[in-house]
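Key idea: predict the complex, not the pieces.
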Amino acid sequence: MVWQTIWGQIVDLSLVAVLLRLMTPILLASLGGLISDIGGVINIGLEGLMLMSAFTSIAVGSSTGNWAVGVLAGVATSVLISYGMGFFSLKMKVDIIITGFAVNIFGSGFTIFLMSKLYGMTGNYSPTGAPRIPVVNIPFIEDVPVLGKLLSGHSLMVWIALLSVAFCMFLIYRTPYGVHLRSVGEAPYAAQSLGIPAKRIQYSALAWSGAFAGLAGAFMSNGLTNMFVKDMTAGTGFLALAVVLLGNRNPIGILLGSLIFGLASALATIVQTVPNSPIPSQFIQMIPYVVTIAALVFFALRNKRRLATMP
Amino acid sequence: MPILLEMKNIHKVYPNGTAANRGVDLTVHEGEIHALVGENGAGKSTLMKILFGLEAPTDGTIEYKGQTVTFDGPRDAIKQGMGMVHQHFMLAPSLTVSENIVLGDEPKKGVFSLFRDRAKEFQEVEHLISTYGLKVNMQAKVESIPVGQKQRVEILKVLYRGAKLIILDEPTAVLTPQETDELFDSIKALVSQGHTIIFITHKLREVMQISNRITVLRAGKSIATLLTQETNQEEISRLMVGRDVLFRVDKIPAEPKDVVLSVRDLGALDDKGALALKGVSFSIRGGEVLGIAGVEGNGQTELVEVITGLRKATSGEVRYQNKDLLAASVAEIRRMKVGHVPEDRQTAGASLTSSIAENLILDHYRNPDFKWGPFINKKKVKQFAKIMMETFDVRAQNEETMAGALSGGNLQKVVVARELSKNPLLLIASQPTRGVDIGAIEFIHREIIKRRDGGAAVMVVSAELSEVMALSDRIIVLYDGEIVALLDNTPDLTEQEIGYYMLGIKKQEQEATR
Amino acid sequence: MKSSKALFLEVGGILAAVVTALICGFVVILLTSSEPFTAISALLLDPLSSTFNIGTILNKAVPLILTGLALSVVFQSGVFSMGAEGQLYIGAFVGALAAIYLPAMSPWIHFPLVIVCALLGGALFGMIPGVLKAYLNANEIVTTLMLNFVAILTTSYFVNNQLKAASGGGYAKMENISKDLLLPKIFPGMAAHAGIIIAVVAVIVVYLLMYKTSIGYELRLVGKNGHFARYGGIATRKVIVVSVMISGALAGLAGIVEVLGIHGTFKENFSASLGFDGIIIALLARNHPVGVLIAALFYAYIQVGAQTMQFGSDMPREVAVIIQVMLVLLVSAQAIFTYIKQRYARSGQKAVK
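Result:
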């Protein structure tokens, strides 16, 4: 039953649509994680940032009636919190992992608090008529049989996510900022001795991660769904971290990793809705995590072998 | 040639009291290759840190191009035309050669100068490469190129920023002989383009090969400035290795007994994979002190690590009390009554965030004498620690004081106390009094002699020649991973003589060193 | 143990952090509540107002103490394991299996057996990231975070399928564990169950282990200075694996105690991030077992206070998260403690030399 459903969805290309939708928050969040990792300040607080953005964007979006303002507000919130992370980690010398951990706790709890305080809701907040991020329907192509399904009808944020990959490639490899960022993450003393302001760069790396996490979160509440549910990110931030590790420190790798993990999510959703499926949804959901561990072990073994054969 | 740089009467006293420079004069002429030589701790690095703006002198002046200058920091020094190629490279491994060269000063283009002008970057780097003949692959990642080329990248970095005076800090320490020759060609090219070089080293052969003028530092003072063509290695060596600090230890002549440690053809690699020990053989008897002299970095560290089990040997054998030491684990070696005072007490010798007592019981925490059932007997530990601290004159509030709060000398006494508390049959002391006050030095030296008189075999490794001479009954000199001399410490043995061996000027016949 | 002056200053620093964090929480309450003083007094005082509340504090503190101990052990060895959540689930799962499916036997044997199974389950699961770190140098933060999901999803699968209780009313949980294996209330009529006794015993055991045994000595030394440990002949890799296993065992214990004390059987998603709260507790306690006990009680107090505040005013209980977050950040701000240490070092130097 399950295989037929899956095959059916592949054939009519609706799987592609679902895949792109589910992949988008992972891709955006992991691009943010990537930038922070390259700069040496890996942001593990992506979950918390996404939650704060998700809530803020739908709250502001529905009260102003404008999705763009909502998204901007969400992004601004995450960026602000990221600067806060910078303050605690770079100034107060809190270990960056602990700061990220604190942001996760904060995001989860504070969004529930706000939801309760501002709207009196406890489980979820679904304002009627909340503006969604628009879907992009390309005029002529949408009527073309295969291409139409592939290219048209996706949320704007999906396109933004894909374009972000190109943007990040550009930022990291084609700008002086990108070179400085890489040098600060790898060899901070070398960078500083040449006059590169390491702290400032690290603050900005965190801000970028906040911006991308903000986009991811905003999409979850204004695109993927049209509401805010408590803890709605459900581990997407941790999946993003896994992608950062698998992605080999480069945006194309991140794209591939997000695709794989997005696919796993999509398959898991299908499996959950079809009764009596041969593979339980839990095991499909587990694939990204197991793959990450396997990849880590693989890289570690390879490193070990490389060191042993050195003259 | 006109004078480019004059450092006059430079003094540098650090807040903890160490006087690294005690009146140094350095005069460098334009276009010359000026060698700055001296033993470890003579003050060379400090002087250069001052020149490069990393430290400020406590007294003295610097005149550059006829003007008195002060540097606010390395960036300021760079702006004024200084360039420094450090001994430990400062490169970002995953960035390419050209990216590293222009780092922080990239050519830009476009709106708001947001974009890298890679064409210009390649152009400028290519220009530097061809002008100076410093061949490197611009597009290669730094992590993949050999050490010699990494050094060229550092030189290019400095040239890119317009340095006129270039300081090279122990540049050949990490190079192969071929790479060294290539470096010297590059240096000559630099000079022909109008640059001036200061070359810090203790390798006298190279000094004679490449420099025009030499300044010798010793114990923080500048001793002499010589024209290379008017001197030779022996004279330089004599000036470097003078007897300034008198280490006197009263001791009775040694009465060596049976061989305790026997080392045959020992070979080992260093951390970078190069051969650090090239077939070393010697033995130590109970009741004698064998001193290992040599400039740091000639294999002493690796030798000690192999014997104590912290490093794998690639060849040879080590026998201790008729057991194969190379097959034993660190724990087993320690249990076999081998004491090891490591050269870096802060990293390997002690746990700074643990108490003195916890540091002292490293060999005893499993000992049934110190246990109360399954638990460690705190009272016993306290007693033991108190006795140790008393016997070894460790000055601290009590045994619970954190080791990190102790002065260098007191911490070293804790390390010595711990190692001697197990009455070792073999004691290996590596740089035992480095960074230690005079009182503690005397104490530690007396302890070492006491153990030797008690029948232990002692190996003292020290870059401080006077210490080696004060303590040893026999002396081995290590140079470039080989034993180049085995000497009896007779009264007519001079430091200068040992110095020749230490600096690679002389070498004994193979048979003499067994 | 540190000298008394250093300890005094460090405790002082923590107290200052606690007070500051509380003030931050109060500020938010002041700004967002229409009856702030009612809210604050409910938060601070109501937990002590009834035996039920006090009992709830103890109950909530139990898993926090145990996971806090778990993390404090592993942090002291220098391993930043974040896997307590997964180890908790595995321990609870294995323990519940032993409780339900082992043949009938006297509870005097069965109960300890259940505990042992939970300890073993957690320890073996903890061995995975331990070995990966010690022998392959695999980053333990990543491996433990990933394994958490593996543990939660695997146990979720089983409890939704093969092991699902037929009589469970459709909920994903195992069969109910027989009454004679469950943790009784320590005083009849009080809410607090006997888990608090287990937790306190665990504190004592961990204290003795860490500070009075050879294993503890080695573990702490590896965390403080790995080079020194290696120099001294300590098998650092084995020590790392053992430390993560001990941590896993304690987390597993936390899981089974929750099952036996509160839920009565293994339920899907029974832990609302207890493993992560343990991280907070360990950080607050600066990894000391007695500190864990105090921090857990304090944390549980705040949790119950937040709940009572929600009942008694217009403040939702999640406002406590502000306090928690500020606590974590302030206590971990090395800059503050370095400052304190420097002041101590300056005044301490006079006595030394």
